[in-house]
Every structure is written in structure tokens, then in C-alpha cells.
Amino acid sequence: MQALKYLTILFFCLWCPLVSSKPGVLQAISRLEHTNSPLIVYPTQFTQNIVPKPIHSHNDYWRDVPLLSAISLGISSVEADVWLVDGELLVGHERAALSRNRTLGSLYVQPLLNILALQNPVNDFTVNQTGRNGVFDTSSGTSLQLLIDMKTDGPSTLPFVLKALEPLRMAHYLTTFSEGVLIKSAVTIVGTGNTPLNGIKLLSPRDIFFDAQLTDLGIPSNTTWDITLAPLASTDYAATVSWNGIGNITERDQVKIKALIEVAHSMGIKARFWDTPSWPVGARNNVWRVLLDSGVDWLNADDLNAASEF
Ligand SMILES: *[C@@H]1O[C@H](CO)[C@@H](O)[C@H](O)[C@H]1NC(C)=O
Ligand SMILES: *[C@@H]1O[C@H](CO)[C@@H](O)[C@H](O)[C@H]1NC(C)=O
Ligand SMILES: *[C@@H]1O[C@H](CO)[C@@H](O)[C@H](O)[C@H]1NC(C)=O
Ligand SMILES: *[C@@H]1O[C@H](CO)[C@@H](O)[C@H](O)[C@H]1NC(C)=O
Prior knowledge:
By secondary structure, the chain is of the alpha/beta class.
């Protein structure tokens, strides 16, 4: 039968020389793609082919579809601003933007649980696996960073954030510092905004970490900061660096950026600059280029497509 089919194709192609005379690999692919063949299906396919990139989705909930849009582009850090209102953690940039349906749970915790359930199938092959896979199929060891920017009073908001994260915690999906050991898992939570430093310090085990002020690191007498408290340190670019991306960067700014990043790295802490210029696009790109060349760990981005193609 198969031979007959090839002969038929061959016959017709005598009359249409532009069409390939033999079924090629592209036709084989196309044929398989239109089947439910078990050969092309596997459990952790939800994020198939997506390569994680060190990009931070600034105010991620602004995207049409929060979290998933970022993950689809390989963006491995997202940010949610949370407001404690009537016992609920609502997500939005300002009060006017809040909606009772958009909560930390509905926009982030539940979708993460769904994705991670897909990436962590329980079957004969995984019975002995102790660690958890992350959201990215191409890099299961990459932890997704979720920045939770507390907008309301820190000490009263923190207990609600801890409670909202409970389903992720129960499933062992959260990076945790416990009994002197830091165990990386699928999701690393970092508190920012009004997150209370003391509240985070007191957590034991600790699965919400702190976003340190990058310009506060590197004072030898100060032992506050280490990776078990602050895996991330950030600073406001515009307030720290005078170069706006137009023209050449000054030697002074260049040295300052490098020094800040190097101090963080010497402590094992990742460095991020937020409030980088977003326009003109050329200036934005110039700043991104200098930051990456200087060793920055996260590119802070509003335009996720532009950053992922940078
Ligand atoms: C929120 O969701 C409920 C259903 O769960 C719906 O009835 C309600 O209209 C929604 N509210 C808003 C503001 O969209
Ligand atoms: C899991 O561990 C048990 C006990 O050591 C072993 O017999 C089994 O082959 C392991 N299964 C897999 C899939 O590694
Ligand atoms: C260490 O630095 C932090 C700010 O980065 C500050 O809050 C704290 O008081 C300092 N501790 C000491 C002992 O100086
Ligand atoms: C900017 O730097 C480039 C390369 O180092 C140099 O050729 C150019 O003259 C500089 N421009 C200004 C305005 O200093």
C-alpha cells in the first residue's frame, strides 16, 4: 500500500515538477503532528521548547494574561503588587486598579500549582525523585522567581501572604531555608515594597525572602545580608546611575554599575536594577546592553517581547 502511494505521488509529480517527488521529512512531521501519536506526547510538555531567560516581568499583572504570558516567553521572574483588603490579597498597581477576582491566589498561586502539577507527574519513573521540577520543561532546575510587592502595611500583610502561599508550600514547591540549609525549589518568593525585614528574618523555616537594597551591600561590619535572607538585591537605576542611555556612558557610571554588581556577586546575591529607561527604545537597549555586559542577573522589563528577543 505504502509503495503504491509513493508511486502515485511519483506519477503525479512527473506532471508537476515543482512538487517534491518523494515524501520528505517535512511531510513526515506534518503527518505526525496531525495525529495523537504517543510518540509525540509526553507529560511535561506544557512548556515544551521554552528556554528560560534572566528577565524580570515588571508589574507582571499588567499583561493581558499574567504569569502565563511571561512563562510563554521564558521569562523567569514575575512581580505581583498585593494589597490587603478585607482579608484578601488583591493584585494591582494602585487601588483604582483592584478587582475582587484578581488575587494573589487566583492570578499566581493557583496557575503555578496547575503548571507544576504537569511538570511533576507522579508515576513509575518519578517515585524516587525528591526534588521538584520547575515550570520550564527545558530546564527543570530553573526556579521561577516571584516578587511579591506588599503595597499595604507590611507586618499586617505578611501573614496573609504566608497563608496564600500555603498550597505551594505543602507541595514542596517553595525554595526554603530551614535548619541552616537553603533548598532550592520550583518557585522562589521574594518580598519587596513594604515587606517587613524583621518579619522575614523571623521566619523559620523561611520561604519568603527579602529584596535587599543593592547600594546597602558590601559594608563588611554589617552582617545582615546573605543569600539565606536576600537572594536578590535591587536598586532604582535612575536614582543610582546618571546615564540615561543616550550618548556614551561616563567612566564613573560604568565603574559604579560594575562595583555594585560585583559586591552582590561576592555575597552570592543576584543584582537587579529597576526603573531603567523604557524610551526611547535605543536608550533602553543601550542601558540593557551595559547592564548585561556588567554582569547583571535580571533584566527588568516592561516590554516582554522586546526583552526576550534582545
Ligand atoms: C468575580 O467573579 C464572580 C464569579 O466568581 C462573578 O460573579 C463576578 O461578577 C466577578 N466580579 C468581577 C468584578 O468581575
Ligand atoms: C526506586 O528505588 C527503589 C529502591 O531503591 C528501586 O528498587 C527502584 O528501582 C527505584 N525506581 C526508579 C524508577 O528509580
Ligand atoms: C545593616 O544595614 C541595614 C540596611 O542595609 C540596616 O538596616 C542595619 O541597621 C545595618 N546593621 C548594622 C549593624 O549596621
Ligand atoms: C562615544 O564613544 C565612542 C567609542 O568609544 C567614540 O568613538 C565617540 O567619539 C564617543 N562619543 C562622544 C560624544 O564622546
